[in-house]
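Re: [ENG-882] Designed sequences occasionally contain unexpected residues at chain ends

Forwarding the minimal case from QA. Structure tokens:
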């Protein structure tokens, strides 16, 4: 393995950590309706547990209501039950073939709780990025130890990895701050 491979690998893994954070933050609900809130809901479909998006069409009916249109008529009750039993605190209501999922307004206490969750997710992402930096630095030291790279090359590469780490941590901070503003806006 060469220095460029180590840096590229660290870069790819740090970007993956950032994408995971974006995904996790997307699941934290704000006062606004978002079909992605229901990504974690699984429905019993003839003995198999499938994600809700694979048995129904999800859409936004308005700013605070998600519409769920089952693809099969008999699935409505199962979908309602799955949404109700999920830990999202949502109460779906049937209207013919359409299931309406109103998103309740959040009180101040719940917003503060969710802000703590968001900060925790951000901290986890920072830890993952720092661990990737440590791994890359250890690989660089091993190259020097095996006499495959000079100490000057190692130091330059470590500085580049540190710059990448700083950039990624700044990005994490920015994502967390944006999500906190979304939570406190309503």
């Amino acid at each position: 393995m060469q220095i460029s491979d180590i840096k590229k690998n660290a870069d790819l893994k740090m970007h993956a950590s950032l994408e995971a954070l974006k995904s996790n933050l997307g699941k934290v609900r704000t006062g606004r309706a978002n079909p992605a809130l229901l990504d974690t809901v699984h429905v019993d479909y003839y003995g198999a547990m499938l994600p809700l998006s694979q048995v129904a069409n999800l859409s936004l009916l308005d700013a605070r209501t998600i519409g769920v249109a089952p693809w099969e008529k008999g699935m409505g009750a199962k979908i309602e039950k799955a949404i109700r039993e999920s830990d999202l605190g949502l109460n779906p209501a049937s209207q013919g073939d359409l299931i309406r999922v109103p998103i309740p307004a959040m009180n101040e206490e719940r917003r503060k709780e969710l802000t703590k969750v968001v900060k925790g997710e951000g901290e986890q992402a920072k830890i993952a990025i720092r661990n990737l930096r440590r791994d890359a630095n250890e690989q660089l030291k091993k190259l020097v130890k095996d006499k495959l790279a000079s100490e000057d090359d190692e130091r330059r590469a470590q500085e580049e990895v540190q710059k990448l780490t700083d950039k990624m941590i700044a990005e994490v901070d920015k994502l967390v701050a944006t999500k906190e503003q979304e939570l406190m806006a309503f």
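QA comment: On inspection the terminal residues look reasonable. The beta strands are 42-45, 48-51, 56-62, 65-70, 93-95, 98-102. Proposing we downgrade this to a documentation issue.
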